[in-house]
Amino acid sequence: MSSLRFPLATLSQVRREVARQIKRIPQAKWWFLVALVLLSAGAYASVLVPQILGRIVDLVSRQAAMMDFVNISVVLIVVAIIGAVLSAAGFYVVSRISERVIANLREDMVGTALGLPTHQVEDAGSGDLVSRSTDDVAELSAAVTETVPILSSSLFTIAATTIALFSLDWQFLLIPVIVAPVYYLAARHYLGKAPKRYAEERAAMAERARKVLEAIRGRATVRAFSIEKTMHDAIDQASWSVVVKGIRARTTMIILNVWMLCAEFLMLAIALLIGYRLVADSALTIGAVTGAVLMIIRLRGPMNMFMRVLDTVQSGYASLARIVGVVADPPRPVPDSGVAAPVGKAELRGVSFSYGDNWAVRDINITINPGETVAMVGASGAGKTTVAALLAGLRVPDRGEVLVDDFPVSHLSDRERIARLAMISQEVHVFSGTLRQDLTLAKPDATDDELHAALRAVKADQWLANSPDGLDTVVGARGIQVEPVIAQQLALARVLLLNPAIVIMDEATAEAGSAGASALEEAANVVTKNRSALVVAHRLDQASTADQILVMDKGAVVEKGTHQELLNLGGIYHRLWTAWSSGR
Fold it and tell me: Which fold is adopted by the domain 11-327?
């Protein structure tokens, strides 16, 4: 597992975050007060039920009139209904607040994740973030839905029962005094082991998600290298790790159940002994003692539920800690630097960057003047994509500096960066929604005429004409699944609408080998026209038209010049061009 995975939040961080989320809910304190009153009244009513049943026993003992039985039966039914209604209303208020907290927390986590630096997400592993935003949110929501009613009912019922028993006779307080340490030791033993085991289980689930995502996203590579069995074995091991850690976590619950059985036996035995003595001494009637024992019996339920939901509570808390671990330290917005209007100059000065112990690029010096197109070529793994990410500000160099308009790119605010930089790669995404919504992500106030012009510029106007509803055509996961070439054209259209001063294209026309190749190449030329551009070229004819060509090998720029200058040099570029020309 990656040591750079997103951290787990501490208890103090969880408390602060939950308190902050509660404050966001209008009049949350008043609603909690209402819930407190409702739940307290409901618990008191539920405690009255066994007391009324005890009074029925006394009526039977003295052979009371039938009307007395009818009256007390009516009271019993009314009290039971009132208790149920009040408790349900209290549960509703508490659940409503808790679900809103979860919803806000989910939104904050997704928003924070979208604002995180790309390298931080990649270093932690996208599977970890996906697991936290799906599995953990679902686990937390399920835990809250299951435990809030139980915990509320249990706590208030236990408190109300204790008060009621004390009002009958102080000796009944011996029961909680003697039994409480047993429950305490059981909970202490459970809480001493459960949190770590549940956290390990959630981490194993994240690792499983990462393995599955890697296999799905890299399926072409998996098939090309015939490593299906290796990937299957890795997923199998990750899945088995989830099973093992899940069993270990549940084992702690089994041990807790043994403690609870001992506590239940002790509680009932003491209640019967105290009740027998009180009746023998004529301190209480048989009915009063019966009511007290019935309260004790009813208390077993809340106590058992309270202890047993610790299993769910711990699982939910582990998920909550993982979610808060993402939002606890959100990226701080970079204020406007005051840099002048966009010019389109970019420069990398002595830039080096490493992934762990290995240098990806070393001592890179590149200057892109306004309106100039610089192409990078080289073998796979030469460092071209890393250079593109460094210029885009997606990576932070270990040494050297990256400047845009003579200003460090890391010091630019989001507004300033968007006005200057846009990066488009081979892997583009079509967002779910209408085509208009997809395009206006780049320019929210764009008119339909501007959208049509952008699509026409990237040669997607004919496709638009054949679309069923024009700009209102639903695309993406819930609509039309567009072809890769069209998806790339839509991405290029968004860049045109964004209108940045510098465009970074990381093999953005890799689909040019398929149908629609010429249209895609023309669209890329339109996007780079009159703009500064850094183009990671996968086709040498695309690089040949650039103002400057950089040849990279093993993380370093080994050749630099125009197309003709590099051919005359007779070096790596000359050999690449000769081989590529022969292949054509």
Answer: ABC transporter transmembrane region fold (1.20.1560)
